[in-house]
Amino acid sequence: MNWRYPLQLPEHNEREFARVVVDRNGRTLRAFPDAQGVWRLPVTLEQIAPAYLQAVIQYEDRWFYFHPGVNPVAIARAAWQNLRCGCVVSGGSTLTMQVARRLYPHTRDMRGKLQQALRALQLEWHLSKDEILALYLNYAPMGGVIEGVEAAAQMYLDKPAADLSLSESALLAVLPQAPSFLRPDRHPQRARAARDKVLRRLLRFQAIDNAAYQQALLDPVFGRQPATPQQAPLLARRLIQAYPQQRLIRTTLDGDLQRELSQQLQRDIQLLPRQHSAAVLVVHNSSHQVRAYIGTADFGDSQRLGHVDMVQAIRSPGSTLKPFIYGLALDQGLIHGASLLTDAPRLRQQYQPGNFSAGFSGPVTPQQALHFSLNLPAVQVLEALTPAHFYAALSNAGFHYQLPLAARPNLSLALGGGGVSLWELVMLYSSLMNQGQLFPLQSVQQPITAQANQVPRPLLTPEAAWVTADWLRNPLPDRSRSVAVIQPRPFGWKTGTSYGFRDSWAIGITPEYTVGVWFGRPDGTPSPGYFGAVTAMPTLQRVITMIDRQPHWPAPPSQVQQINACWPLGRLASNTPADQCHRSVSGWSIRQLVPPTLPDSANPIAANPLPVLVNLQGQRINARCENNGKNSTQRLIQLALWPVILESWIPAAQRLSHQLPAPAPGCASSLIIGRTLQITGIEPGEHIRSTQRNSAGERQLPNLALGANGGVGMRYWYINGIYRGSSAERHVLTIPLRRNGEQHIVLIDDQGNSDRMTVYAD
Length: 762
Prior knowledge:
Layout: E1 19-22, E2 28-32, E3 39-40, H1 50-60, H2 72-85, H3 95-103, H4 110-126, H5 129-139, E4 146-147, H6 149-157, H7 166-174, H8 188-204, H9 210-218, H10 233-242, E5 248-250, H11 255-269, E6 277-284, E7 289-294, H12 322-331, E8 341-343, E9 362-364, H13 366-371, H14 375-385, H15 387-396, H16 422-430, E10 437-438, E11 457-458, H17 462-471, E12 492-497, E13 503-509, E14 513-520, H18 536-547, E15 560-567, E16 571-572, E17 583-590, E18 610-614, E19 635-639, H19 656-659, E20 678-680, E21 687-688, E22 703-709, E23 715-719, E24 722-727, E25 733-736, E26 741-749, E27 754-761
Parallel strand pairs: 1-5, 3-4, 21-27
Antiparallel strand pairs: 1-2, 6-7, 6-14, 8-9, 10-11, 12-13, 13-14, 15-16, 15-17, 18-19, 20-22, 22-25, 23-24, 23-26, 26-27
């Protein structure tokens, strides 16, 4: 062998090392062993505690930086000691020779020793001392399938090699001497004796002082059973597949937060059936970096399909996109914070959803509609905005709202008529704290993602983003489970539940963080009774309390103003005559935009008062009934009319029938406007009880016999927000109740006249 020839090192590239995914501080989240199942984590000299480097050099090879790879003095001393004892007292191998033995295995006879020495000389010829030392630190045997100081530090001590103390450094420095015999997890007493031997040697050679020596002796020796880290296992798997050439992937995750939230989610999921899972995603808004990624409630639970990553799964978003309908409409000048929206059945419309709460609220503001997650106002605003514009705005900003095959944007987008991932949803909500700009989320630190497109795309103006976020700052729902620590400052939140109770969502925002929570079954099976406010929301509260308990909300932009508007017309109170201002409502406006009340098919004149011609006595007339030369006595009055469908929610004095002046004599026949609609057959607040019992002797739910007086055309009946049937004039409709307790009855006729009543079933 000519050791001057170019050295052919064995292949020790990335494939020989375990592939490691670490958190933002370098702590291992998950590692994947090499092809032989060996845990060898790459490390450089700069990434190792100086105490460990000192211990290795002083104990293993004091003259490492001076000899050519073989130390004749050490070999002679070892031979003499062994000869005198008749046993093996010490070895004469240098660190370079130990590296040679690891890279070029040989027989344990004299010929093998000679080969080892020649290989050591060859290594010294081609490599620097630091390069040889780095090889030793990466390949030194540490027990079982563990090799190298970094793997040993993390497996036995749960810390990186950079954080090793003097005591821990001495322990790991001696371990390669007899890895199986000195393993601290199996033989702590032997490991302690060996560690103390290293410390005495360091003291004798004045590498440490007596105070450091005494302190190190006091440290206990403990090694945990080597276990593969399993933090963020699904993200780690995804990144390993995405970056096949990277052996070390440094994520943006906070390992401590990741571990704490994973444990919390495992506790929370125990309250749900065995087939349920959950996911949590935490994003730092200003950096757009993911701080916690929990794709499953329990990675090792096959019943919960723990291998399925629910952060990336495409699911129906339920009501979680409603805030962005209102935000875009605000930017388009369609609504303002005090706009009059209608929460009542949609008359003569193809798309007629109900509310999740099984009832109607009548007139509401955008913030009230969001707080109570009302479906009908969101559909009303989306209809004015148009589904095509809403879908295009999201798409242009980089948000992927997946529609069913061959489907076009329609009104169902407001209520989850498509698919999104938790990843995309959190990115979308984070834009509310980034002045309406959508930034791609970052889970891997630079420079791996240096080529990624981090250019933001606009969705909302800063003013609309701020107002939308502020609308989400509402009191927490009473029906959610209590949390251990009271949240002293509110945060923005929105819950959602997809059709059939398949997905439960809760999204929270603070100026610093955006948090997304999903609960449900990964296989998409419905879970009746489990919805966002009772499953996902309690977990969201705990996460927000943990990471940002005192959120300080930013001040509104200069182009955001508080205004007072008058209902029903929706105009500024200062520009509305007193007799047309039936209710003054305050809210936010942006860029001095104060659009009037939205018109729709059931309320085409919503934005304009109704002109009415009256005579000198204030009686209603028209050209046909009074055209007798007394035009000088005629005048127009302007009536601010509520949408007809809302009349049963407003005071009687503000309804059309009460605002209209009485007709003048001889004019009544030409001024018919319809008749007041009224529910009959039952009284408000009445308690209804059935006398019928089923075969088990239990009392059956009662039937309601409902009729109506007045109105025009067909009558449409809703009970607890659900359409239950229609009836003609002078027809009584019998409707069986579906539950006990409070029953909300709403009646609407063909002209939009309405009446409502609350009764009780016992």
